[in-house]
Amino acid sequence: MSQYDVVIIGGGPGGYNAAIRAGQLGLKVACVEKRDTLGGTCLNVGCMPSKALLHASELYDAAMGKEFATLGIEVKPKLNLSQMMAQKADSVTQLTKGIEFLFKKNKADWIKGAGKIVGPGKVEVTGADGAVQTLEAKNIVIATGSEPTPLPGVTIDQQRIVDSTGALSLPEVPKKLIVVGAGIIGLELGSVWRRLGAEVTVVEFLDRITPGMDTETAKTFQRSLTKQGIVFKLGAKVTGAETSKSGVKLTVEPVAGGEAETLEADYVLVAIGRRPYTEGLGLESVGVTTDKRGVIETDHFKTSAAGVWAIGDAIHGPMLAHKAEEDAVACIELIAGKAGHVDYNLVPSVVYTAPEVAWVGKTEEQLKEAGVAYKVGKFPFTANSRAKINHETDGFAKILADAKTDEILGVHIVGPQAGEMIGEYCVAMTFKAASEDIARTSHPHPTRSEAGRQAAMGVEGWTMQS
């Protein structure tokens, strides 16, 4: 029986970062992963391949539309979908191989197979060939991530009705694509196929898109996507699906009541969220239970069982790769006797469409509900010189600050490169910065980041460029 200080179940962003940090701290560590490659959903069938397609499709759309011609670039592009998919796969392979290198560098063992807790301090690993081995560990970390949430009454066959994994590898550009769910995953993948030529309709149960996003930001975002050709059916629920060799007939009803209608499409993408992947892990062998959604309750990553920890999508908090990374570092440092903490209020969210949307901290709705007095500074990208020169003027930057102390409470950006810009505010808010700190900090000109500075000036009413 192999003995370790830490055995991690799951090799995604939470698991592999936990293994690397454990190795750095001198702990003997093993990471159990059942995929043929490390990186989990994020690297293999999530964050990274979707960004590869978002980037490629954005360039294709610019070439096919008026943008290239406006810039004086005359081309007649032809889509090579198989090559687009091949370069996506190549990028993913390079990244997963990079994690293998980091494991070797930090003396972390990768145990290939499906892991299951079989008692205190014991993890049983079943390999692809059926061979079973048992690992003994002082500490076990559950980092098994999440899986797409199924839609009752709709069977995902990965042929005509697909989840996010299937939507990354469609064999053709759909003439019509229906996306069920107006969250981040659905809108990103819907954007990919819309740019490549599909007619895209998004069906959402709620009366708004991107739940959890600041409402004003979401409305601006929706207007931009609508202008690009995406059709939204909000306040609608899917009640049935009928597939054939050539497509899908989807039955949709108004949530508020009314007549059902049938929507037809070549493919349907079900993207109504994700749920923790915690079944079949043997949690009962150590007395650990989950809630109805499969979430494991923890206190500073400790479960109810001694020596058993959980991180990432398996526990409460935003289901984001970078949140899992932060969990991983904090959890391993606690195991090593150090301090470890993650402030979930300062975990940013990003939608990698065009325009991008990024935010951190509180929304206006949350501040109103909590009775917090706040001020707002907002600046449109139509008035930002770099955005104007680049023909990327949709959206704005908005800063919410405490009315009394001026501490920044939330930042919301919809516009070009929003995901890159939001990091400045994560740092600022970590150090309890005031909006004036941003307003009086020199930003390079001309850059999109100046929009954030102008928004900060707007908190006290002295925006200078609009």
Can you tell me about this structure?
It contains 14 helices and 22 strands. With 466 residues, it is α/β, with parallel strands linked by helices. The chain is globular.
Query: Taking Cα atoms only, what radius of gyration do you get, to the nearest Å?
Result: 23 Å
CATH topology of the largest domain: FAD/NAD(P)-binding domain
In the CATH hierarchy, the architecture of the largest domain is 3-Layer(bba) Sandwich
Could you estimate the helical fraction of the residues in percent? 25-40%
Q: Pairing-aware structural class of the strands and helices?
A: alpha/beta
Number of helices: 14
Q: State the shape.
A: globular
Give the rounded overall mean pLDDT. 97
CATH class label of the largest domain: Alpha Beta
Largest sheet: 7 strands, mixed
* Strand residue content: 25-35%
Distance between the termini: 68 Å
CATH superfamily of the largest domain: FAD/NAD(P)-binding domain
Low-confidence stretches: none
Oligomer state of the chains in this structure = single chain
Number of β-strand runs = 22
The count of domains is 3
Q: Gist?
A:
This protein is α/β, with parallel strands linked by helices and 466 residues long.
SSE blueprint:
Layout lengths: L1 E8 L3 H12 L4 E5 L6 H6 L1 H18 L1 H5 L10 H25 L2 E5 L1 E6 L2 E5 L5 E11 L3 E3 L12 E2 L1 H4 L8 E5 L3 H12 L3 E6 L10 H13 L3 E4 L1 E8 L4 E7 L6 E5 L1 E4 L3 E3 L31 E3 L10 H15 L13 E3 L4 E6 L2 H7 L3 E7 L4 H5 L6 E7 L5 E8 L2 H13 L4 H5 L9 H11 L7
Q: What keyword list fits this structure?
A:
466 residues; alpha/beta; FAD/NAD(P)-binding domain; Enolase-like, domain 1; 7-stranded mixed β-sheet; 5-stranded parallel β-sheet; 22 strands; 26% strand; globular
